[in-house]
Amino acid sequence: QVQLVELGGGLVQPGGSLRLSCAASGSIISINAMGWYRQAPGKQREFVATIVSGGRADYADSVKGRFTVSRDSGKNTVYLEMNVLKPEDTAVYFCHARLISSSSYYYTPTDYWGRGTQVTVSS
Predict the structure, then answer these.
(1) CA dist 78 to 7, 11, 33, 43, 121, Å?
(2) Are 33 and 98 in contact, with CB atoms under 8 Å apart?
(3) 3-state DSSP call for residue 106?
(4) What pLDDT is attached to residue 102?
(5) CA–CA distance, 92 with 113 (Å, rounded to integer)
(6) Is 25 within 8 Å of 75 (Cβ atoms)?
(7) Is the dihedral of CA 95, 98, 101, 104 positive or negative?
(8) CA 5/CA 49 separation, integer angstroms
(9) Distances from the Cα of 72 to the Cαs of 51, 56, 58, 83, 112, in angstroms?
(10) pLDDT of the chain, 123 residues: tens digit per residue
(11) Dist. CA 32–CA 53, nearest whole Å
């Protein structure tokens, strides 16, 4: 059983900063990638950022230059440093991991999701 637990959401003023973290736990064998998606009210879930096992990071155009994704492989934890936050960044942020666990079918990477953490950017 694999779990992803997010921490760090909250209310922040425009221009402010927040840091999210997500820890993966359970019978994990290896993690291919970890990252973040978000879903604003009335909208579909969208990609925010991801970091693969080799350290390469990718970002949505809307957050490039403002958000930084990083990972502590030893702790199976991914972070999202969010700066210069805008009201349009308001959403529930979901942690995502693509990993192989002891229950993976023929060691095929499987996608896991956290329950989400609310980020609200408002004055």
Answers:
(1) 11, 21, 9, 24, 22
(2) yes
(3) helix
(4) 87
(5) 12
(6) no
(7) positive
(8) 17
(9) 11, 13, 17, 20, 18
(10) 899 999 999 999 999 999 999 999 999 999 999 999 999 999 999 999 999 988 899 999 999 999 999 999 899 999 999 999 999 999 999 999 999 998 888 889 999 999 999 999 999
(11) 5
User: Using the 8-state DSSP alphabet, how is residue 15 labeled?
Assistant: T
Question: CA 15, CA 113: separation in Å to the nearest integer?
Answer: 28
Tokens 């809307």 -> residue: 62
Residue with token string 């978000």? 38
Report yes or no: 30 and 103 within 8 Å, Cβ to Cβ: no
